[in-house]
Amino acid sequence: MTETWPTGKSQTVTRIILATLLGLFGLWISASFLPALIWALVIAIAIDPLYVKARKRWPGPQARNWLAATITLAVALLVIVPIAIGIIQAAGEAHDVSLWISAARDNGIPPPAWLRDLPIGSAQVIAWWQANLATAEGAAKQLHHLSNAALVTHSSLIGRGLIHRLIIFAFTLIALFFLLRDRDGILSQLARAGDRLLGSTGERIGRQAILSVRGTIDGLVLVGIGEGAVMIPVYAVFGVSHPILLGALTGIAAIIPFGAVALFGVAALMLLGQSAVGAAIAVIVIGLVIVGIADHFVRPALIGGATRLPFLWVLIGILGGVESFGIIGLFIGPATMAVLVMLWRDFIGGDATVHPAGQGA
Predict the structure, then answer these.
(1) Residues 79 and 168 in one domain
(2) 3-state secondary structure of 234
(3) Per-10-residue mean pLDDT for the chain, 361 residues long?
(4) Which of 6, 28, 53, 251 might form a disulfide with 10, Cβ 3.0–4.6 angstroms?
(5) Chain-centre distance for alpha carbon 281
(6) Is residue 307 part of a domain?
(7) Is residue 236 domain-shared with residue 320, that is, in the same domain?
(8) Calpha distance 133→111 (Å, rounded)
């Protein structure tokens, strides 16, 4: 008596188990490259409207290839050129920093004049400075972690991390090219898969996730760049060194809500080093006003309008996403929250609109 391969319900269960195991195995194999794939997907979603317009203007299979290659190259230059400028600038400053550290260890660091103008605790701060930084022995003790050996070790670690990120970035560009080139086929396959698994809900989930990613890019990336651009003339007017470079770094930090505040502190410390106490206070105050307007009015309107989420949930999605997934969590978090809220509204059978701080849920 010969045994036959299981059919019907048993065969379906076997296929599901096999597909699940293979899927998990595939995720395990590609785990190192998943961040690159996610980054490529986020970039593709962000630039898709422009790509669609370009495809309408230049139709045809050959145009599809060179359009995808051109856009990928443009994205690469948009990332590489600012980083290269920053590295060149940092390399130029490294020699001066090294000389300053050597001079500080050999001769000490005299207390700056502005310490005497502090409204509170001036005497205590000056006394601490005299005991710990003003003499060669004290300065050497405080700056021991900036020794040449420590700097070499840190540079080695930074170098290995940079190589790893360059590999991920290169794979991101490769994935972006294929996502753009094969856009129509990928969307068609995803639509069929979503319809089979979730019915009409699958299409709505995909649409909501795409709108959330674009809204997050507008609310975080573009607003962050805007904050950095506004702070460049502020830095320049108050005499901060390298205002353009510091403004660019402020724009990058401002992508994370309230992240620009750290750069305002750096600018203030640089001004304090020049005994410009009033200018340091002015930079902090103006920066906080700009951040307050951006984070409390502009971002809620852009992100909340696209995701239909109160900014509290947007903020939870952003910060929780960053904590769980790093910088890519900026986009994963809000999109996940938006989809969850959409499913919740479907579950309770209505819009479930509430109005915290004047905004619907």
Answers:
(1) yes
(2) helix
(3) 57 82 85 85 88 84 86 89 73 66 72 69 76 72 58 55 80 92 86 79 80 80 86 88 83 81 86 79 90 80 70 78 81 83 77 44 39
(4) 6
(5) 28
(6) yes
(7) yes
(8) 8
23: in domain: no
Closest CA relative to residue 129, chosen from 113, 145, 144: 113
pLDDT tens-digit series, residues 142-154: 666 555 555 555 5
Backbone dihedral region of 10: left (phi > 0), alpha (psi from -120 to 50 degrees) or beta? alpha
The answer to whether 181 and 68 are in contact (CB under 8 A) is yes
d(CA 54, CA 56): 5
Taken as a whole, the chain contains a residue count of 361
Quote the DSSP letter at residue 255.
Answer: T
Structure tokens at 122: 């001036």
Is position 270 within any domain? yes
Q: Domain boundary at 154, 181, 208, which?
A: 181
Q: What type of residue sits at position 85? A: I
Say if 65 falls within a structural domain: yes
Domain that holds residue 288: 200-361
Note whether 141 and 267 are same-domain residues: no
* Contact between 266 and 295 (Cβ < 8 Å): no
Prediction pTM value = 0.67
* 2 dihedral zone (left: phi>0; alpha: psi -120 to 50; beta): beta
Say if residue 227 is in the same domain as residue 333: yes
Going from the C-alpha of 258 to that of each of 8, 169, 213, 251, 279, the distances in angstroms are 57, 26, 20, 11, 21
Q: What is the maximum span of the chain, computed from C-alpha positions, in angstroms?
A: 100
Distance CA 164, CA 184 (A): 32
Same domain membership, residue 77 and residue 137 = yes
For the chain, report the end-to-end CA distance as a whole number of angstroms.
64
Question: Does 227 share its domain with 169?
Answer: no
Strand intervals (E) in 260-315: none
Q: Looking at this protein, which amino acid is placed at residue 106?
A: D
